[in-house]
Amino acid sequence: MVLEVLEYPNKKLFERSVEVDKFDTELGEFLDDMYDTMIFKGGIGLAAIQVGRPIRALIINLVDENDTQNKDDLLEIINPKFIKKDGEQLYQEGCLSVPGYYEDVKRAANVVVEYQDRTGKVCTLEADGLLAVALQHENDHLDGHLFIERIGFNKRKKFDKEYKKKPKRQSL
């Protein structure tokens, strides 16, 4: 089922999400709905808070070398904890909650994340490149932050000015 994606400046997007402690069929169904929503909206990542549920869960499904998203490559990451962040990279980011806006953001180049899967099993993931960026971007959502908070004062001022000019979209 496709869920509604909250858009900036919705106040819910700035809430800190709570840890997941119940790994059941309801969580699995919610993760499936998040996947349907992310694919429908054309995203490569989605945090639970973006669809109105403040739990520490996110999904990422990068495109492969054939420019397709293979569900077998889907990462479901619950209660993520960054064990290591190092290096630096600049990557142009966008966000389903800030549609139509893209800007360069500085992030760690290499990360190690400990998390739980949909069954509660503890896993570790090492990532670099776009996957490292996506993990940090989606985790920011869980902490109540958007990528536009990381773009620098002048770019943020320009964004705020341009955003106010945009016509408001109706919710579904």
TrEMBL record:
GO terms for biological process: translation. Keywords: Hydrolase, Iron, Metal-binding, Protein biosynthesis. Its cofactor is Fe(2+). SUPFAM superfamilies: Peptide deformylase. Binds 1 Fe(2+) ion. GO terms for molecular function: metal ion binding; peptide deformylase activity. Fe cation binds at residues 95, 137, 141. InterPro entries: Peptide_deformylase (IPR023635), Peptide_deformylase_sf (IPR036821). Gene3D superfamilies: Peptide deformylase. Its EC number is 3.5.1.88. It catalyses: N-terminal N-formyl-L-methionyl-[peptide] + H2O = N-terminal L-methionyl-[peptide] + formate. The active site is at residue 138. Removes the formyl group from the N-terminal Met of newly synthesized proteins. Requires at least a dipeptide for an efficient rate of reaction. N-terminal L-methionine is a prerequisite for activity but the enzyme has broad specificity at other positions. Belongs to the polypeptide deformylase family. This is Peptide deformylase. The lineage of its organism: Bacteria, Pseudomonadati, Campylobacterota, Epsilonproteobacteria, Campylobacterales.
